[in-house]
Structures are given as structure tokens and as C-alpha cells.
Amino acid sequence: MVSKSEQVLEAIKALLIPVPDAKVERNTAVPEKIPTGGLIVLRDGDPGEPETALGGFGGVYYSHNIEIELYAEDGDATARDAAFDNLVQSIGTVLEADPTLGGLAFGMSYGRPDIDTEAVAGAPAIKTGTIIVTIEYETTSPLG
């Protein structure tokens, strides 16, 4: 049987797969070459401490912070900025399409990514960002 936290992570990954022209991976090391359409890496994040209902009856509740890392690479800063913004907008669109992950979660919240541009010797710079998505869900086990 698959844990609820794993089901939530797989549901988020499934939402990200249709992002146009981007490659989606989970918990992978960042490759030396970023694909032309950008790279999205889903990190398991931190499920936080389990919370139980008063009296210990019922389920266990989590506010799971999941990280979505974005990478865009292009020799031209304007094109790189546009590609990165396109990734951010596309991710917002797919997350809004199913905020309860097909009923797995109560809902989600997220904000704009923390952005950085990394210089690479002898190669185009890489624009990176991390979006923290908080998923609220209930499970029957404190192990997720």
C-alpha cells in the first residue's frame, strides 16, 4: 500500500508533466545540461509534524511543504527570463487545475519562486527558482 504522502507527491508530479516543453523529474541531481524547454525538479520536501484532533480521535493532519525547482538556460538573458517566466506561469496554471489533487488533499497554497541566476563558466547562465507548495491533507497513520 502506498502512503498518503507518496500519493500526494505523485499527484503533484502528474500535474507538472503537461507543462509545455519542460522536462519533469523527481528528486534528481541537476544535470550538467538543462533541456531547451526548461527543467522542473520535484523535491519531496518536509511533511512537518503530524497534528491530531483533540483527544487523539480521527486522522492525522499534515501541512506538507513540497519544493518545485525550476531551471531555464539560454545564452540570451531576455530569452532566459521569458522561458523562466513561462515555466512559472505554466506551473501556476497546472496547480490551479486541481488544487485538491483529485480529492487527496484539502487544498494547496504557493507563491512566487525565490529566484537566482547562476553563472556557469564557458556556458550560458542558468536562471533558477524554487516554489514552495504547501499541501494540506489527512491520513490515518502518523507515518504519512
Architecture overview:
- By secondary structure, this protein is α+β, with helices and mostly antiparallel strands.
- The chain has two helices and seven strands; from the N terminus they run αββββαβββ.
- It has helices spanning 4-16, 77-97, and strands spanning 23-26, 39-46, 51-52, 60-73, 107-110, 114-120, 123-139.
- Strands 1, 2, 3, 4, 5, 6 and 7 form a seven-stranded mixed β-sheet that branches.
How would you sum up the global shape?
A: elongated
Percentage of helical residues? 10-25%
CATH architecture: 2-Layer Sandwich
Order of SSEs: HEEEEHEEE
Q: Round the mean pLDDT to the nearest integer and report it.
A: 90
Q: Tell me the CATH topology.
A: Alpha-Beta Plaits
The CATH superfamily is: Phage minor tail protein U
What structural category arises from helix and sheet content? Answer: alpha+beta
> What are the segments in which pLDDT stays under 50 over at least 5 consecutive residues?
none
Total of helices: 2
Number of strands: 7
Can you tell me the number of structural domains?
1
Largest sheet: 7 strands, mixed
Radius of gyration: 17 Å
The CATH C-level name is Alpha Beta
**Straight-line distance between termini:** 12 Å
Strand content: 35-45%
Topology:
Elements (H helix, E strand, L loop, with lengths): L3 H13 L6 E4 L12 E8 L4 E2 L7 E14 L3 H21 L9 E4 L3 E7 L2 E17 L5
Parallel strand pairs: 1-2
Antiparallel strand pairs: 2-4, 3-4, 4-7, 5-7, 6-7
